[in-house]
Amino acid sequence: MATNDDGDALRANVDWLTRVRRRVLPTVHRIKEPFGGFAQCTMDPSEYVGTVGRELSEFRTDLQAMEFSPEPIASLKVHGDGRLSAGSWVRRPSPLAKWQLHVTLFQDGRDAIDVFAHREHSWLRHPYKHYTSEGWDTTSGVERMRSLLSDHGVAFRID
Questions:
Q1: Cα distance between residue 151 and residue 104, in whole Å
Q2: Cα–Cα distance between 88 and 76 in angstroms, integer?
Q3: What is the CATH number for 73?
Q4: How buried is residue 77: exposed, middle or buried, by Cβ count under 10 Å (0-12/13-18/19+)?
Q5: What pLDDT, in 10s, does the model give residues 80-97?
Q6: Domain of 136?
Q7: What is the pTM of this model?
């Protein structure tokens, strides 16, 4: 895990969308929460795919090669140990696909990324089902992401 000395360097590695998400969504969450809504959530340990021994910028390139794209519509994810997500990525067979594979990244030091995943309804096709987590599937999401990592030669360990 990152130390306080690493914090500034790790924050600098995240993309602009993630920086905006980290700054804005905690406030949005505080406004929505009393009404049963959310803009921030804690990752469930069942979504853990593994830890990839690469820097964030390197792993972004791997995700693009696996046909993932940055996800602009995602809540701010918080790791069980308090770390904020370092990016949300999504993979869909087409823009109007019913389902998507959603991947969330957490920096674990400067050269490792904890990867979490789930399968869910696409917010583009089914916004309400997406928001209410209808059909949310961690098991198939984790299995699919592990398979993609293996198929693309990206080594990972399961801690």
A1: 19
A2: 9
A3: 3.30.310
A4: buried
A5: 998 988 889 999 999 889
A6: 4-157
A7: 0.80
